[in-house]
Amino acid sequence: MDTVVDLAPMRRSSIGFDHFFSVLDRAIKARDRTQYPPYNIEKTNEDTYRLTFAVAGWAPAEIAVTARPRLLVVSGRKPEGDSKRYLYRGIPSGSFEHRFDLADDVEVRGAQLANGLLTIDLACVPPEAPPPRRIPILDPTGRAEQRRNAGLRLVPAPAVGRSQRRGTA
Predict the structure, then answer these.
(1) pLDDT of 41-97, one tens digit each?
(2) For the chain, which residues make up each domain, given as ranges?
(3) Per the confidence metrics, is the pTM higher than 0.70?
(4) Can the peptide bond before residue 69 be classed as cis, meaning omega within 30 degrees of 0?
(5) Where would you tag: which of 23, 42, 64, 84 has the fewest CB atoms within 10 A of its CB?
(6) Overall CATH class of domain 34-79+91-127
(7) What is the largest CA-CA distance in the chain?
(8) 64 φ, ψ to 5°?
């Protein structure tokens, strides 16, 4: 059974979630595609992840792992011209491409191919929070509104002795 999802009502009432909605759209459209090669997504620690692809028969030169801002692309391409004559061909040998949308704070740490498994390590690296900043409020002429006490400094009063406070000199 196919379910139709309409995201238009959420788009109309949301600001700044464009990336989120494009990720949802791609996920909905991609769910029917065959997923070769098979892969796992593993959470290895509180803020680290590992992608593992089953790529038996593939050489490192035939696979590309490309990290872009908020996107990881894993692709493979076999060289043309396989001259073998197969009676039965059950092992896929065509090209593939997988795209993974990443959060802003996820970075690719490395990739390794061993025993027919391609592993890609990812980590969440939270960015430093910017310091809070005051937003100036403009008046109708376009100038920044002056704060009531702007330019005034508090100056401590001169020290007064006990005898001076009572009015005695």
Answers:
(1) 999 999 999 999 999 989 999 999 999 988 999 999 988 767 788 888 887 778 899
(2) 1-33, 34-79+91-127
(3) no
(4) no
(5) 84
(6) mainly beta
(7) 118
(8) -125, 135
